[in-house]
Design goal:
This protein is α+β, with helices and mostly antiparallel strands. It has a two-stranded antiparallel sheet. It starts with a strand and ends in a 15-residue tail after the last helix.
């Protein structure tokens, strides 16, 4: 899936909502209640960390947001 990775002090992954199976119009509560989406976002977070050579493991150095 296409994504843009930015590591400029605060690592960021940009991708379309559709690539995650959502519309982008869901409320934060709806997104956080979607266990499948949360698992996928966590997998992508870890992969992006490895790709940016940040050494991120299972710890969450930043507040998790969907």
């Amino acid at each position: 899936m296409p994504a843009t990775l930015i590591d400029n002090g605060m690592p960021v992954v940009l991708m379309t909502a559709a690539s995650l199976g959502v519309t982008g119009r869901e409320s934060p509560a709806e997104l956080e209640a979607d266990a499948r989406l949360c698992r996928r976002v966590e997998q992508l977070r870890l992969l992006a960390g490895r790709m940016m050579r940040l050494g991120l493991g299972t710890r969450r150095p930043y507040r998790r947001g969907v």
